[in-house]
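Same chain as my last thread, 185 residues:
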Amino acid sequence: MAQILHKLSGGDRRSIGQVDEVIADVEEDQSLFDELVFGMLHGDPLIAMRAADAVEKLTREHPDWLRPYKDFLIDRAPLSEGQEVCWSLALMFGRLQLSDSERHRILDILSGWLDQKSSILKTFAMQGLADQAEQNPELLPDVLPVIEECTATGTPAMRARGRKLLKKLRVIEPTIAIRKGRRES
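reply #2:
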């Protein structure tokens, strides 16, 4: 096992292991990022979830690091059996430059996660859908009703996140209507 992934082993799901140390290592030597990304599919679920957590945290500052892994993130990573990997993916999807077909694939993945048992995964899926709609306002008519439904019927965490997302998305919605009105004139 690669040294960087070895640092992510041990303990249980409640701990992050040495994620912060791994992040520092990768920031110092970006060539380690490749192992970290592919570690998201590691057979040890602890390593996979911590690798995903580290990748998500690193790409907050370096979203361009995801570019070479876009196909992997869209096609293979969602197959992970660990919901914790999917939590991180839901946030990373918003950092990718997507074609229309890739965007629809992402929307399908995120929508599918809303049907899962984990309320945490559902909350992250809501965030992922909102991120996509924020970047692509033409998605608002499809995404807003989904977020509204989750906000009305979800767990307290889903309702709280939903209220924040709706507040943000509803600011965008009138702008879209104004732009459409100008085009029709």
